[in-house]
From TrEMBL, chain A:
Source species: Ornithinibacillus halotolerans
PANTHER family: ANTIPORTER SUBUNIT MNHC2-RELATED
Aminoacyl-tRNA synthetase as UniProt keyword: no
Record's bilayer topology term: Multi-pass membrane protein
The UniProt record lists the keyword 4Fe-4S: no
Residues that span the membrane, as ranges: 6-21, 28-47, 67-90
Any one annotated GO CC term: plasma membrane
UniProt keyword list: Cell membrane, Membrane, Transmembrane, Transmembrane helix
Record-stated family: Belongs to the CPA3 antiporters (TC 2.A.63) subunit C family.
UniProt name for this protein: Na(+)/H(+) antiporter subunit C
Residue runs in coiled coils: none
UniProtKB/TrEMBL annotation, chain B:
Pfam families: MbhD, MbhE, Proton_antipo_M, Proton_antipo_N
Name of the protein this chain belongs to: Na+/H+ antiporter subunit A
MrpA C-terminal/MbhE domain ranges (all copies): 710-791
BP GO annotations: proton transmembrane transport; sodium ion transport
MF terms in GO: antiporter activity
Major localisation: membrane
Compartment(s) of residence: Cell membrane; Membrane
Keyword Cell membrane applies: yes
Record domain NADH:quinone oxidoreductase/Mrp antiporter transmembrane: where: 128-430
Length: 112, 796
């Protein structure tokens, strides 16, 4: 199972990078979201998969999955949500101000 | 802090007070300033009796004791000789500048502060025993020289000259710093005296040659040796007192001082001998040859300074052979060249200072320094002419002036160099006297040009900028007269300075016992005298036929001069670096991302392969069910759809699909809290995406296919493959047992049954607090981006 998920993470990374290297702002943000999905999968896999029950204490259960990666991913999900929403609004504003969403056209002055 | 420390720091102290008294003074500021060098000079004179007996004075003052850096002063013959020149010529220059610099038109406080800074730095430089302190003061002389050259900063040429001098001397200074650091690492001490004591260790080190060359680069740049001499002629844009002081008598001799000081350490080696004497002779020849051609009096003097410094340098090189021998006779034989170098150093400071002052007077009284405009000044300025006569004949090496003595000794030294037989390439030494003689002929010619062109012939008033030309004020004449008198005095009583100044200095330079030398004015018809007579005869012949042979200067075009090489080199460096920067800094974010990804992930792959890190272990892997495979395939499909679709709505929706499949994965992997959060967040994100998309009216309708780029594909695959390999390797190797069992105490320690929540708010509550802060900041950011607009912008 682990190698399957890690190959999946690799594919997510590859698609994310390909998206990020595009010119449209929306594609770049899609890329960052995919990238964070890939990272979350990697963190989860590092803690080993499918070992025991969900980490809710119960007398009848002897083995739980590792709760620490889950806590880390939870923190990370929230942070990447915050960043994504900020990026979206930023790109909306930038596209509106510059009348373009093409990164090639969003350049500073040549003498800057 | 000793009295000597006080003397050296006195100019710096005076600098502090000048701005306060400057505005309140009615008299020329120089009248106050002159007491500083005078006081130092008188006190330095008081050192002569004890130094001439072979004593030395050492004082220490802590500066950064924890690093072993102390302002250590070591006063011996060499330091005293330089100290007397610096303070003595300094006094005269300040007196001269009182009459040269106009009280009402010039910013005198700046001038004297720079000058005093320079004086203090120079005094400290020549008596510092600590190499790092020596370097600090060395750079301070560069900086103050830079300030002085650009004193008239509104002139373009002054700024250009200052910049050039700064670049070249600081380049040399940094090379010297590296050399000094190497040297102190070899010898395990910063003290020059201790280095000399441990000279055996230094000579055996493999870093001996690098240290030698780096230190020599420092000395050669400062002393304007070939090919670093180009800054000196351009430094002539400085006020004449500055040229007289810095660029003839003191700063340009800092390199000479360094070579003399380092002679006990490096002397006796073949590299040192050939480099110092060879470069010295090349500089001597080059300087004297170029000087003949100059039409500006100060440029002529600048090239003559270059040539005379080369002369001193070559004598120091030949004299270093004295350290090769241990027996007395051969040592004395070559030590005489060192003695000649020190003697000429002293003489040069006297006559060159006087000549610069003379040129300054001519410039001041006629308004020009161009020899094509000047002429017939002898009758108008008899006193100035007399000094010029003394100075230029001394420089040409004629009796009865001190230059004659040191030039004869120079010939002796060069003739003795031919007998050097302990280094390889001995045959080379046989051309030393020839070069020396030819250079002396050229020296003779330019000295005569200096004397004849401005003073003899007819005065053409119409060509001069100033109305009525007359003799300089007496105050302006006194300093050059004193120097001129010294020139004559030294010829008649050479042994007075020989005994009290030069022999102790020689002892310090050699750091070995040699019998004291006597200077003899008349030593019969030796080879040297015939050489001098030859110089006079050929010099006069060439001088009178000067128009016929100056054609040879046309053979060497200006484009091939070192100066134009330097200028074009500087220009090309700027152009090349601009074009290089333009090539990689395109302003295109895709390029920067490509650099980052390629570098980071190639390094990771190379490290993995290079350290044999790739090894997989699937033995602990968990089972796979058919559902798992289905979910993974669905996710891959969704991820690829974001790429392959031309429609943005499809891309957003498939991104949402990836998110919801993530939820399913979390469910499979027994992470209920994650699944819950991911679901909510994914919904919100997709909603935001769509909102954003909807509110971009113009862009929304456009459907655009992504352009395929092979580089992007390759880089993405590189990143994906690297991540997979890296994580696969990492997951198969667990170095320590995880700490997850601790968190099963959640109920006992935190009173919670949900372990993940207990970690978030109890065990690792700090993370959560800051994560809330992140959300908060993001919220403020979103609000700001939507609400705040530049003033006058009402568009929504």
């Amino acid at each position: 199972m682990e190698y399957l998920i890690l190959i999946l993470a690799g594919i997510l990374f590859a698609t994310a990078i390909y998206n990020i290297l595009q010119k449209q702002l929306l594609r770049i943000i899609i890329g960052t979201v995919l990238l964070s999905h890939g990272a979350h999968l990697v963190i989860l896999t590092m803690g080993k998969l499918k070992r025991g029950q969900p980490p809710i204490l119960d007398d009848s259960v002897t083995s739980y999955t590792d709760p620490l990666p889950q806590a880390l991913i939870l923190t990370s999900i929230v942070i990447s949500f915050g960043i994504t929403s900020l990026l979206l609004v930023l790109s909306y504003r930038a596209a509106n101000e510059n009348k373009t969403d093409n990164m090639d056209e969003m350049r500073g002055e040549s003498n800057e | 802090m000793s009295f000597l420390h006080f003397l050296i720091l006195l100019p710096f102290l005076a600098c502090i007070f000048i701005p306060f008294i400057y505005k309140k003074l009615n008299i020329h500021l120089g009248w106050i300033v002159v007491f500083v060098p005078l006081f130092i000079f008188i006190n330095y004179l008081l050192f002569i009796p004890s130094i001439s007996k072979g004593n030395y004075h050492a004082f220490s003052m802590p500066w950064i004791p924890s690093l072993g850096i102390n302002f250590d002063i070591y006063m011996d013959g060499l330091a005293l000789l330089f100290g007397l020149i610096i303070s003595g010529v300094g006094t005269l220059v300040v007196v001269y500048s009182i009459f040269y610099m106009d009280k009402n038109r010039e910013a005198l406080h700046n001038f004297y502060i720079y000058l005093l800074l320079f004086m203090g730095a120079m005094l400290g430089l020549v008596s510092s025993d600590h190499v790092l302190v020596l370097y600090t003061l060395w750079e301070l002389t560069s900086v103050s020289s830079f300030l002085l050259i650009a004193y008239w900063y509104e002139r373009k040429k002054s700024r250009a000259g200052a910049l050039k001098a700064m670049i070249i001397t600081v380049f040399g200074g940094l090379a010297m710093l590296a050399g000094l650091i190497i040297l102190s690492i070899i010898a395990d001490t910063y003290s020059i005296r201790e280095m000399i004591a441990n000279v055996g260790i230094i000579k055996e080190s493999s870093l001996f040659i690098p240290a030698l060359i780096l230190i020599l680069i420092g000395a050669f740049t400062k002393s304007a040796q070939f090919p670093f001499s180009i800054w000196l002629p351009d430094a002539m844009e400085a006020p004449t007192p500055v040229s007289a002081y810095l660029h003839s008598a003191t700063m340009v001799k800092a390199g000479i001082y360094l070579v003399a000081r380092m002679t006990p350490i490096f002397g006796g080696s073949a590299t040192w001998f050939w480099l110092v004497s060879g470069i010295g002779l090349v500089t001597l020849m080059y300087g004297s040859f170029r000087a003949v051609r100059q039409t500006d009096l100060k440029a002529l003097l600048a090239f003559s300074t270059i040539s005379q410094l080369g002369l001193i340098m070559s004598l120091l090189g030949v004299g270093s052979a004295a350290l090769y021998y241990t027996n007395g006779e051969a040592q004395t034989f070559y030590a005489f060249a060192l003695f000649a170098a020190l003697f000429h150093l002293f003489n040069h400071a006297t006559f060159k200072g006087a000549l610069f002052m003379v040129v300054g007077i001519i410039d001041h009284e006629t308004g020009t320094r161009d020899i094509r405009r000047l002429g017939g000044l002898m009758a108008i300025m008899p006193a100035t002419f007399t000094i010029a006569l003394i100075g230029s004949l001394a420089m040409a090496g004629l009796p009865p002036f001190n230059g004659f003595l040191s030039k004869e000794m120079f010939f002796t030294g060069m003739l003795r160099a031919t007998e050097v037989n302990m280094f390889s390439l001995e045959w080379l030494t046989s051309i030393f006297p020839v070069v020396a003689w030819v250079a002396s002929v050229f020296t003779f010619i330019y000295c005569f040009i200096l004397l004849v062109k401005p003073f003899l012939g007819e005065l053409n008033q119409s060509r001069l900028p100033k109305e009525k030309v007359h003799e300089a004020p007496i105050g302006m004449l006194i300093p050059p007269i004193i120097l001129g008198l010294l020139v004559v005095f030294v010829f008649f009583f050479p042994n007075l300075i020989g005994k009290y100044l030069l022999n102790p200095a020689l002892y310090a330079t050699l750091s070995a016992e040699v019998p004291a030398f006597e200077i003899i004015a008349w030593h019969g018809f030796g080879t040297e005298l015939w050489m001098t007579i030859g110089v006079i005869v050929f010099g006069l012949l060439l001088f009178f036929s000067i128009k016929r042979w100056t054609i040879i200067f046309r053979v060497f075009p200006d484009q091939l001069s070192i100066n134009s090489l330097y200028m074009s080199g500087l220009e090309n460096m700027e152009k090349k670096s601009v074009s290089l920067t333009d090539r990689y800094m395109t302003g295109n974010i895709r390029h920067y991302l490509l650099y980052i990804f390629i570098v980071t992930f190639s390094v990771l792959i190379i490290a993995l392969v290079g350290f044999d890190g790739i090894s997989f272990d699937f033995s602990t892997n968990s089972y796979i069910t058919i559902y798992d495979i289905g979910i993974v395939i669905a996710m891959v499909a969704a991820a690829f759809t974001t790429l392959l679709t031309t429609n943005r709505i499809t891309a957003i929706v498939s991104l949402g699909a990836v998110g919801y499949i993530m939820v399913m994965l979390f469910v499979i992997f027994r992470a209920p809290d994650l699944a819950l959060t991911q679901m909510v967040v994914e919904t919100a994100t997709t909603a935001l995406f769509l909102l954003c998309f909807y509110h971009l009216p113009k862009l929304g309708k456009r459907i655009e296919k992504m352009k395929f780029k092979l580089t992007n594909l390759i880089v993405s695959i590189l990143v994906g493959v690297t991540v997979t390999i890296m994580t696969l390797v990492a997951t198969g190797h667990r170095l320590f047992t995880p700490i997850n069992e601790f968190f099963e105490n959640a109920y006992e320690l935190a009173g919670a049954k949900n372990i993940v929540n207990a970690i978030l708010v109890d065990f690792r509550g700090f993370d959560t607090m800051l994560e809330i802060a992140v959300l908060f900041i993001a919220g403020i950011g979103v609000y700001t981006l939507i609400k705040l607009r530049p003033k006058g912008d009402d568009s929504q």
